[in-house]
Amino acid sequence: MRGVSVVVDTGGVEAREFASTVAAVVTRHAPPDPWRPGLAVSDADGDLERALSDAGWDELGGDSNLLPFVAPAAEALGRGFASLQPVDRLLGGALRLGALARYANEGGPLVEPRGGRLQIGTATRLQPVPYTDSLGVARVDAGRPVAVAGENASRRMAAWAAASTGYFAGVAGKALDLALEHARSRRAFGGTLAALEPVQQMLADVATLTDGLRLLTGGGSGDVPGLDALAYAGEAAERVTAICMQVTGALGFTLEFPLQRAYRRSRSARAWADAALLAWEEPAE
Amino acid sequence: MPSDGDSRAGYAAMGYDGWIGLHWPERFGGRGGHPLATVAVEERFGYHWLPLSGYLLSVKTIGNALLRHATEELRERLLPEIAAGELLFCQGFSEPEAGSDLAALRTTAAHDGDRFVVSGHKIWTSSAAIADWIYLAVCTDPAAARPHRGISVLVAEMRSPGIEVREIPTVGGGLLYEVFLTGVEVPADQLVGELHGGWRVLMSTLDHERVTSEKVGVVLRVLDDLAEAAESRMARIELRRLRGEAEAARLLGRRAATLLAAGRPAAAAASMAKLSIATLVGRTAELGARLIGPGAFVERSDGAAAAGRVAAMTRASAGSTVAGGAAEIQRRVIARRGLGCAA
């Protein structure tokens, strides 16, 4: 059972079918996790990118009518700990914030939200840096940017925010699954961890946060999570993974158990999301 | 805060204007609308900080429970008057030694022919001083093998001989009451649900009580108030964060309300709704204090920041994780009923 299985069917069959397709793609292209402390690692996966393109992912950012499809599909990415690169592609290129960019390629487009616009530049020099997560983070220089404003910028930012929110929901949902599975199987004090009241209290908080995030994705109902939802989603996913770490104990702290990926991803992605929101809020020049 | 405030006149006005029981059948004074329309209206009531204690008990909690569990005769007798804003209920659940552990209640109702004789002591009872009726959890079978199997639910008129009320002021600004019941005679046809089968009715009633959509509106109003004080970009992001959290709480509440209206199991969903909004109320009050500073605690008066609503919310937030079932109880319900964690 994923969380509390009482989600009300609010329609959106096509959006759910697309999300299922994305989930299948992620399962076929399960990303490895070569990350170790001190390494500069990117989990970008060309095969995954092509498979998502074939499924129709690239159309999501260009058509406002497809916005309700974005968050449920991105939730599938998050559940599979897939690369965030497809999310950033909805912006039109690699996400740049100040001196750093993630998933950037030399000569490729860099997109920086600023003051309600998107500044589009070209990466001229990349210097990968060791990072806490496999986001392919590099220090970058960029050519003179071109500003994209108006409806085009707002639509891209809306798609990216919806996708990021969905991604956080997926990461949180996967973390809950891992913690629940552990709590139900690990025995202590003559029973399972899941039978212990303090553990139940923690799992209940996680389930409440996770169900809230899943409902925010809209599930194809037509409701699309916006910038407010994104601002909340990162923090909520952080809270979820922190509590799940407590439930799993030392096991969760090890690199061989996948919860650490949710823990790192929720924190790194939240830092980028908050910074992007702050930059978007800057007064227009 | 609205959930602490009482106004008989305000309640009557809601009924007169047709805002009570929007989703109830027309034969009971309702308008046959969608349950989510009621949820949306309750959120707007909260946004305008209307005094809602009597409404929340009489309509959202007890009215909906009567609609589901009472006999046709009792529904015909009580619901139209509630919908008209003319009949107010209070709820007699908690006792000095039975709060979260409701099965431990000691108020007894002895079945005597065509009546019950009720004796006991209820506490933390909102709106008791202005209520016309009380919705009572009582023990009808003290010898039951398990305590919750001996519980029944009755409704009684507050003017019945043998009922006394004592006032308990709270930090939230509202009043709670103790209700003393001494040999109170209640006609047997005022039983709600089955004799000794009240536990199921109580749990269902609590599910309704825990969908606190009005508090989503209460929070959104304060977040609007705080927009002026959010001068930095980081402060505006913090406001966005709480707006996002409020949206999640709203959706959890709508989900629970939809399940309840469909007669589907809703305990875990209702507890999630309750837990999420109770947490959010506290977080909103904290952010208000951070953004406004010492002025946040100037109470409602000329020139008070946010019209004194941050001060009121700060005081009331201490109770928002207690009223309707403590947060630990909500978590227990979620874990056991929702996640399937064994006891």
- How would a textbook summarize the main sheet of chain A? 5 strands, mixed, barrel
What's the number of helices of chain A?
Answer: 8
**N-to-C span of chain B:** 36 Å
Rg of chain A, Cα atoms, Å: 19 Å
Counting copies of identical and different chains, the oligomeric state is heterodimer
What is the helical fraction of chain B, as a range of percent?
40-55%
- The overall pLDDT average of chain A reads 92
Helix content of chain A: 40-55%
Supply the helix-strand structural class of chain A. alpha+beta
The geometry of chain B reads as: globular
Name of the CATH first level of the largest domain in chain A:
Mainly Alpha
Distance between the termini of chain A: 50 Å
Strands ordered across the widest β-sheet of chain B: 1-4-5-8
Question: Order of SSEs of chain A, N→C?
Answer: HHHHEEEEEEHEEHHH
Structure report:
- The complex is a heterodimer of chains A (285) and B (343).
- With 285 residues, chain A is of the alpha+beta class.
- The radius of gyration of chain A is 19 Å and the shape is globular.
- Chain A has helices at residues 13-28, 46-55, 67-79, 85-89, 150-185, 197-216, 227-248, 259-281, and strands at 94-97, 100-102, 109-114, 117-128, 137-142, 146-148, 187-188, 191-192.
- Chain A has a five-stranded mixed beta barrel with strand order 1-2-5-4-3. Chain A has a two-stranded antiparallel ribbon with strand order 7-8.
- Chain A folds into two domains: 13-87 and 153-280, Butyryl-CoA Dehydrogenase, subunit A, domain 3; 91-150, no CATH class.
- With 343 residues, chain B is of the alpha+beta class.
- Chain B is built from ten helices and eight strands.
- In chain B, a hairpin with a 5-residue loop joins strand 6 and strand 7.
- Chain A binds chain B through residues 1, 3-4, 6-8, 180, 183-184, 191-192, 194-195, 197, 199-201, 203-205, 207-208, 211-213, 215-216, 225, 227-233, 235-236, 274, 277-278, 281-282, and chain B through 233-234, 236-237, 240-245, 247-249, 251-252, 255, 258-259, 264-266, 268-269, 271-272, 275-276, 328, 330-336, 338-343.
